[in-house]
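Deliverable D2.4 — example input (structure tokens):
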């Protein structure tokens, strides 16, 4: 390489050993590249680890929120289902009670109808025979054997009707 100096006014040349300089420069560049590459790989690896940790944390938070909301939802559904089941049981119980009361009421109405019908028939026959007997008595004639027969017939008919009613309706 030529060297210049201001005092000499002549070019000065010197030979340098660039082979060792080139070797050192190559090693320096290789070391720098390796360091930068390894450092970048370490940075990428660290960044990847940080990102994975953040992702795992985010997933765990999301899962815990999801689990909490699902538990809340399930407990709400279970409460509503229990309420509906209780309402159905209460409705069924009230329906059965109403059915029993209606059956008793209907049976008592039928029982009373039979008794009232029997009493009405007896009362009608009694009134009829009393009216017939009073019309016979009011005619101011002496009681004849036909009047006695009629009176006996009335008593016998009432007795038979009463026995018949007892057999049909099972009353004593």
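Example output (designed residues):
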């Amino acid at each position: 390489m030529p060297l210049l100096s201001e005092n000499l006014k002549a070019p000065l040349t010197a030979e340098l050993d660039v082979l060792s300089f080139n070797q050192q420069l190559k090693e320096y560049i290789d070391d720098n590249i390796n360091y930068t590459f390894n450092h970048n790989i370490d940075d990428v690896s660290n960044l990847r680890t940080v990102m994975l940790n953040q992702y795992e944390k985010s997933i765990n938070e999301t899962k815990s929120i999801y689990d909490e909301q699902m538990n809340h939802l399930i407990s709400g559904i279970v409460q509503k289902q229990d309420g509906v089941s209780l309402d159905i049981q209460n409705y069924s119980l009230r329906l059965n009670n109403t059915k029993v009361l209606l059956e008793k009421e209907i049976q008592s109405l039928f029982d009373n109808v039979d008794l009232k019908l029997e009493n009405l028939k007896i009362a009608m026959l009694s009134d009829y025979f009393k009216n017939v007997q009073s019309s016979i008595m009011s005619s101011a004639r002496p009681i004849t054997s036909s009047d006695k027969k009629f009176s006996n017939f009335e008593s016998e008919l009432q007795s038979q009707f009463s026995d018949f009613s007892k057999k049909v309706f099972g009353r004593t």
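The longest strand covers residues 2-3.
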